[in-house]
Amino acid sequence: MNSEVFLLELAHMVIVKSEFALALNQVASERGITVDEVIESMQQAILAAFRKEHPEYIPELDEEGQEIDNGITIMIDSQTGESHIMKGEDDITPPGFGRIAAQTARQVIIQKIREAEKKTVISHYQDQIGTLVRGRVIRRDMNNVYVDIGKTEAVLPREEQMRNETYIVNNRYIFYLKEISTSKVGYSRIIISRSAPELITELFKREVPEIASGTVEVKNVVREPGERAKISVYSNQGGVDPVGACVGQKGVRVQTVTDELNGKEKIDIIQWNSDPKIYMISALSPATVIKVELNEETKIARVTVTEDQAPLAIGKGGMNVNLAARLSGYEIDIEQLAPEKPPEEEEAVEEDEENATS
Predict the structure, then answer these.
(1) What are φ and ψ of residue 40, in 5° steps?
(2) CA geometry: angle at 100 spanning 98 and 103, to 5°?
(3) What is the arrangement of strands in the sheet containing 72-76, beginning at the earlier edge strand?
């Protein structure tokens, strides 16, 4: 036999597999798990069914509650699916066991495959914690919104939602993948957020190459989700305007971020400064500040503004001053400076006072 014929026959032997082997590989491929995981699930299923029919083979437990190995193993031929129950080197497979245990084994196999599939999916998203994901709303209840993020379903809890957003089924949003939480019984769920400050950080990182490259650093982000946010940025490279980089030409970059937040959240971009007074003045923008007095021990800042600038400094419902306080780390007291009277008014007041005393 020449080498070419031998190789052709060898290739034919490799390609032609049993129906069981093909089904095994198909299940593994469709579920995104390994063939070994499917085989292991089958072994556990067959062992569980065998113990149910023959409780005398259930192993005893040690003092710590662990099973004592009684030498029972399950052998499965990965090509044919033929299974044998072994005790050491002895085959103790009961006659007709396959028919008796088939239904039980099938249910356990399905369960184990689903568990393995979920484990694989959770592992996939574990590496994506702290990044952005785009998803489609599939349903909601009183508290939670459930979102299809590709390979699985994620949960948007009430506390991670934006107050002024309505999550309509089939609408798509971008989310911050916050964490994977695991309950006491081992149930895992992927938690996403629309209210996390990190959502804004990651959106700017996506839109601003200078942030992605590290040329511009995001120092802090504070939010009233859906209403207003302040982000402080910094660059230690000369000639780089961190605020301008984030705003973009004609405001295109910051507008893109705002659009991802449904266009409802106003974003103030502030240049971070190591001098807390200068930083405080920037944090209170768009108000013009006259003077800042800091108490480092109490972390209280006394900020003086003119009467006409006070509404800007405080903001609607105190939002601007509250965000500035969270951004700077100081409690802020706003003091209004009364406007100076024109000289002629001062003279008139003095003349009235003199006439009143005479």
Answers:
(1) -60, -40
(2) 90
(3) 72-76, 83-87, 90-91
**83 strand-pairing partners:** 76
Q: State how far the Cα of 193 lies from the Cα of 181, in Å rounded to an integer.
A: 13
Judged by DSSP in three states, 229 sits in strand
Q: 146: pLDDT confidence band, cut at 50, 70 and 90?
A: very high
Nearest to 284 by CA among 298, 297, 302: 302
What does the pLDDT look like over 36-88, one tens digit per residue? 887 887 888 888 888 888 888 888 888 888 888 888 888 887 777 777 888 88
Q: Residue type for 95, please? A: P
Contact 85, 92 (CB under 8 A): yes
Structure tokens at 161: 């939602």
Bridge pairing between strands 217-224 and 72-76: unpaired
pLDDT of residue 272: 95
Q: Which domains does the chain have, with CATH numbers?
A: 3-60+69-123 (3.30.1480.10), 128-193 (2.40.50.140), 196-272 (3.30.300.20), 286-349 (3.30.300.20)
pLDDT band for position 12 (50/70/90)? very low
